[in-house]
From TrEMBL:
Signal peptide: none annotated. This is Asl1-like glycosyl hydrolase catalytic domain-containing protein. It comes from Candidatus Ordinivivax streblomastigis. Residues 251-472 form the Asl1-like glycosyl hydrolase catalytic domain. InterPro entries: Asl1_glyco_hydro_catalytic, GH, H-type_lectin_dom_sf, Ig-like_fold, Secre_tail. NCBIfam families: Por_Secre_tail (TIGR04183). It holds the Pfam family Glyco_hydro_cc.
Length: 940
């Protein structure tokens, strides 16, 4: 008969719930007898025949199983004993039973079950239509069905998936587990279906329907909760009694599963995948790295354990990040997965949270619990807390009533040396009974395996091969089946935000949008959106299954604010919408065939692209100026993808500022000048310049020699042109002479060297005009200066410079930490600059340095971005943190005056990016900005 089963919904606080569609479970008739006596039975129909006698359930009787739907249960006899006692009395279609050949003979709770399924049996059938319509395919156990198998899978275990991305329903026979995944390597949305009690007939949920690219089918075994942990125990008496191995110790304690911290089944001669009958073996990936081939070549075993005590330095000693990096190795096996086993549950919770972010499947949580002196109620509440926090059933993979390092009291002995004697044995028995009562009755406890080697008083098996009092009790228990479908956790996919990037295609003159989408086949479609102001968005196009898009470059006349923004929306198969980061490009007004191009760029803590209205000359070299202190974090200005049509710019802060509870966030874009000069030598007035590039600059100092020596020692200004590494760095120079200089890139402490290309300008001190009317000045400080924001180097220009574009650079190397130059103030008369270093090496104050500079006069404070700015965007803003006044659009202030409330003019300046008012006494003031806007502010 067939019936529908109403499933209970489990509400977990993290991220899982039950999702089923069209679920049907097929059951069969059942018959229970104490024993068969003088009988000949043929099981030709769908029936479960249970024999309950533990001593002799088949008395002068035979059973011939001729239907694949007929199962024979021995409720109280182990599989090995069934085989040795009744091999000739049990037949499959007239032939004697041959486990793993013409039948399965496996553990069922404390007994055994004979299943008439040959090794070639195909328990899974899939269909291309819902409700089991369309074409169908069948699948055997232990094969990896995928059209793109990973290389670790043995060739003999690979099979093509005929209906890749075309499966919508399936039937799974009782006694088997099937794993489906979106991606051909077993990743993506991954879900396990277990037919432990009845056949499953299911219309696939939306996450899998038409999206399956990986299938693996496993045999299911009906183990009880009780297991054993242990490998080879090298005691002579144990070898004599055949108790030296994990499988035989498990048998002695009547455990139905075991593990030994290894990847492959091992133990006695009977411990192989086709001879181990009384237990299920559970492989474990003990730690990071190592040979992983065994996990993909294993047969029969349906479960897999994560790392052993990664939170302990003397054990696998793994960070959460490393464990997360390793987790796909386990997922790609298709096995039912248990978390790394920890005693530090904060580590566990961090791991589970990271898995949730990445949509990694974790089917049960594994812990170790050596809790001495706890009451049974405390055991329950503490375990329940782990279950409630993680939302998973628990395996207690190592546990005992305390350990040799715990401090609870015992009748005799001391910490680390509690002997096995009558008094201690009675205490261990009493405590163990209370703990087992919790473990055996708590529905969220799926499995437990006691650890034997934590002092003689706590042992279950002695080194002489005898059971202790507690061991005798443990061996006598008959806990329930381990798996509880009411506690099964079905993953719910959390849609992740796609990452959008872009580039300029020189081949066709278009913007190429590209994105990475971690949602894979769970994305239904993408919506490409565009904005001309970063606030109001319009849809460009709706597309499916692509991860790039070409769009036309807009002309300056089409861009009212000089910037074009793009983003994509990912629409999940169930309707969830996730919006990517927005990216933008700016159009810079540049002159055609200009020998020198000078402008300002808006820089932020993400890559921004700038398109040149007219292409640069082929041999133009880009150099960046000095960032302001508008954002307080240390920054490294760098470019990438520099060509004649475009460049990309980013302000990168040091990695240690991007972690922790308050990661760095740039509240305002900066304005950084840039200059493009032809490669080679140039002359402006009495200033001689050399512009060039260097390839593959790294940590090691390298000497650069000029083709033609200078007559005086030049100033060096350098810029990073590539971004091969995400790490912020500082370009530093030293030993500058008339014939050359040394250069290197400095990193945060402990970072690996990566080579980058740089540009540099070598310019002799002096002044002149770089065109007919605009000044250029090159100079150098006479003394080391600029050690901090509060003690900057003050640089006075020889002649006032309207709207100065400032290019400063550290010329010396008086300490070894990575550091860059920052601009504190800037006006037409001069600047204040200071050295700002990264903080991972030490917190010592930076050494003062010699500072060189080049400053160029500009016509207007415009950034070089073609724009029409609204009145609102000129709003003056007071920054109480730095005691400065600036414009909200970060442009140069033409004229600013600060008055007291009584009308007295206190400060005035022209052509500045911001005004420092830190010298004012606390009180209220009024600033008049650009002649037509006022700002009232309070100086604290």
């Amino acid at each position: 008969m067939k019936f529908k089963k109403q499933l209970h919904v489990q509400h977990y606080g993290l991220f899982f719930c039950f999702l089923f569609s069209g679920l049907s479970l097929s059951a069969k008739d059942s018959e229970t007898l104490v024993a068969l006596q003088n009988a000949t039975r043929t099981l030709s129909q769908a029936v479960d025949l249970h024999l309950t006698d533990a001593a002799n359930p088949l008395v002068n009787s035979t059973v011939d199983i001729t239907s694949e739907e007929a199962w024979l249960f021995f409720d109280n006899m182990k599989p090995s004993k069934v085989l040795s006692n009744y091999k000739n009395a049990i037949k499959i279609n007239g032939a004697v039973i041959a486990p793993f050949n013409n039948c399965r003979l496996v553990v069922y709770k404390q007994g055994a079950v004979v299943i008439p399924h040959a090794s070639t049996y195909q328990p899974l059938e899939t269909f291309t239509a819902t409700d089991f319509g369309g074409s169908s395919q069948k699948y055997t156990i232990d094969q990896y069905y995928t059209n793109a198998p990973i290389t670790d899978i043995p060739a003999a275990r690979r099979a093509a998936l005929t209906d890749d991305n075309n499966i919508r329903s399936f039937k799974l026979k009782r006694g088997y587990m099937a794993t489906f995944a979106n991606e051909p390597d077993g990743m993506g949305y991954s879900r396990i279906f277990i037919a432990d009690a009845a056949d499953l007939e299911i219309n696939l949920p939306i996450e899998l329907s038409g999206k399956i690219s990986f299938i693996r089918v496993f045999q299911w075994e009906w183990v009880s909760k009780k297991g054993w942990c242990g490998g080879t125990w090298n005691e002579p008496a144990l070898f004599t009694k055949n108790l030296a191995h994990g499988d035989t110790q498990s048998d002695f304690i009547n455990a139905t599963w075991y593990y030994h911290w290894g990847a492959t089944v091992g133990g006695s001669d009977n411990a192989t995948a086709t001879t181990l009958l009384n237990q299920e073996f559970v492989p474990e990936k003990w730690g990071a790295g190592g040979d992983v081939s065994a996990f993909y070549s294993n047969t029969r075993w349906s479960h897999l354990l994560g790392a052993n005590e990664p939170d302990h330095s003397e054990q696998s000693n793994m960070s959460v990040a490393t464990a997360i990096e390793e987790w796909p190795i386990l997922m790609k096996t298709g096995a039912r997965l248990g978390s790394p086993a920890t005693t530090d549950y904060s580590w566990l919770y961090s791991f589970m949270n990271e898995c949730a972010v990445r949509n990694y499947r974790v089917d049960y949580v594994v812990v170790h619990a050596y809790w001495g002196g706890k009451s049974p109620s405390s055991w329950y509440s503490d375990l329940k807390k782990i279950h409630d926090t993680t939302g998973r059933p628990l395996w207690i993979k190592e546990w005992n009533n305390g350990a040799n390092w715990t401090t609870e009291s015992w009748p005799s002995g001391s910490k680390g040396d509690h002997p096995y004697n009558d008094a201690n044995a009675k205490k261990q028995l009493s405590d163990l009974k209370g703990i087992l009562q919790v473990l055996d009755t708590a529905s969220f406890i799926e499995r437990y395996s006691i650890y034997n080697w934590v002092e003689d008083a706590r042992q279950l098996i002695t080194k002489n091969g005898d059971l202790t009092l507690a061991g005798e009790y443990l061996a006598s228990t008959t806990p329930s089946l381990a798996f509880n479908s009411n506690k099964e956790v079905i993953p719910v996919w959390r849609m992740n935000v796609p990452k959008l990037a872009y580039s300029y295609s020189e081949a066709n003159g278009k913007i190429r949008l590209t994105w990475t989408d971690p949602n894979g086949e769970l994305t239904e479609k993408y919506v490409i959106e565009q904005s001309l102001d970063g606030a109001n968005w319009s849809e460009l196009e709706e597309i499916s299954y692509a991860t790039e898009y070409l769009t036309d470059v807009l002309s300056p006349d089409e861009i009212p604010h000089g910037e074009v923004y793009y983003r994509i929306k990912t629409i999940g198969c169930e309707g969830t919408i996730k919006t990517s980061n927005s990216i933008k490009y700016d159009v810079l007004k540049t002159e055609k065939d200009a020998a020198l191009t000078l402008s300002y760029l808006k820089a932020k803590d993400d890559w921004s692209m700038y398109l040149f209205e007219n292409p640069m000359n082929e041999n133009a070299v880009i150099t960046l100026g000095t960032p302001t202190y508008r954002n307080r974090y240390p920054v490294s200005a760098r470019t990438r993808n520099v060509n004649k049509n475009s460049l990309e710019l980013e302000l990168k802060t040091w990695k240690n500022y991007l972690t922790g509870d308050y990661p760095a966030a740039f509240s305002n874009p900066d304005t950084v000048p840039f200059i493009a000069l032809p490669r080679g030598y140039s002359q402006f007035g009495n200033i001689k310049l050399l512009t060039d590039t260097l390839l593959n600059v790294g940590k090691v100092w390298r000497t650069v020699t000029f083709d033609t020596p200078f007559e005086v020692v030049p100033v060096i200004i350098a810029t990073q042109l590539t971004a091969n590494d995400e790490t912020a760095t500082a370009i530093r120079v030293r030993n500058i002479t008339k014939i050359g200089f040394d250069v290197c890139r400095k990193y945060e402490e402990g970072k690996t060297n990566v080579f980058e290309d740089i540009s540099y300008i070598a310019a002799t001190p002096g002044s002149g005009l770089y065109d007919d009317t605009h000044r250029i000045e090159v100079g150098i400080t006479s003394n080391a200066a600029g050690v901090s924001y509060s003690n900057p180097a003050k640089i006075q220009f020889e002649t006032p410079c309207n709207y100065p574009a400032f290019f400063g650079f550290i010329q010396s190397n008086n300490d070894e930490t990575a550091a860059n130059l920052r601009l504190k103030t800037r006006n037409s008369d001069g600047v204040e600059v200071f050295k700002q270093k990264e903080q991972t090496a030490n917190n010592a104050n930076p050494a003062a340095e010699i500072i060189g500079y080049m400053v160029l006069e500009m016509d207007t404070p415009a950034t070089g971005i073609h724009s029409i700015v609204t009145e609102k965007s000129h709003t003056p803003v007071y920054d109480a943190y730095s005691y400065t006044i600036r414009l909200s659009n970060h442009q140069i202030i033409n004229r600013i005056e600060v008055y007291s409330v009584w009308g007295a003019k206190l400060i005035s300046a022209s052509g500045v990016s911001d005004l420092d008012v830190s010298a004012l006494q606390p009180g209220m003031y009024i600033a008049k900005v650009n002649g037509n806007t006022s700002l009232k502010f309070i100086k604290q």
